[in-house]
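$ ./design --mode recover --in tokens.txt
reading tokens...
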């Protein structure tokens, strides 16, 4: 057999044996304005999970992909750990799905739809806010509310923290007769000791 044919066969076999991975996305090809955020309910339009719905677990912006809860599951082999070197395990995890293979769900019709952003001005505050709407309609697709309690941490004072009483204490009273500069001794310490202008 010709060497080039053998090399081509080896290349083909190695490609088939390699696991499927998400391809690298160059920064210029990454999506700049995302219409899908974590917590959204989406409809999978293609792939082995086609026709199913799920909740977005994580947005992989650098890969233009999403992780959807309990969808596109793959088996991951875990090497033996130091606790038990003889035991290897297998777990099921979510694999990324490209954002082009999912669509947001219309909150009224429960059908996959295309969305776009519109600038809506709040009547009370007068501030402009971007909101998602179904293309060609006035139906808004609200963003899911973040679970604030999940990220709220209880504050615990440490010995090195400044007390609230000390922080509220007034230590400087401005006076029109006294310039707001430190004393001459402090300024002398701040000057360069090796300067010829000292």
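writing sequence...
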């Amino acid at each position: 057999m010709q060497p080039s044919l053998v090399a081509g066969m080896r290349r083909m076999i190695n490609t088939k044996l390699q696991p499927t991975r998400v391809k690298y996305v160059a920064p210029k090809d990454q999506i700049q304005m995302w219409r899908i955020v974590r917590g959204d309910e989406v409809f999978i339009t293609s792939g082995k999970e086609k026709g199913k719905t799920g909740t977005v677990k994580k947005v992989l912006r650098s890969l233009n992909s999403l992780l959807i809860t309990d969808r596109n599951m793959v088996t991951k082999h875990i090497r033996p750990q130091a606790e038990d070197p003889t035991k290897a395990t297998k777990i099921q995890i979510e694999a990324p799905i490209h954002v082009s293979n999912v669509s947001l769900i219309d909150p009224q019709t429960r059908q996959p739809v295309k969305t776009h952003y519109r600038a809506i001005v709040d009547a009370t505050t007068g501030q402009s806010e971007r909101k998602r709407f179904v293309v060609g309609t006035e139906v808004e697709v609200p963003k899911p509310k973040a679970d604030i309690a999940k990220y709220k941490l209880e504050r615990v004072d440490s010995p090195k923290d400044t007390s609230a009483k000390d922080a509220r204490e007034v230590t400087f009273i401005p006076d029109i007769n006294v310039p707001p500069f430190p004393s001459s001794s402090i300024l002398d310490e701040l000057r360069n000791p090796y300067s010829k202008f000292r």
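exit 0
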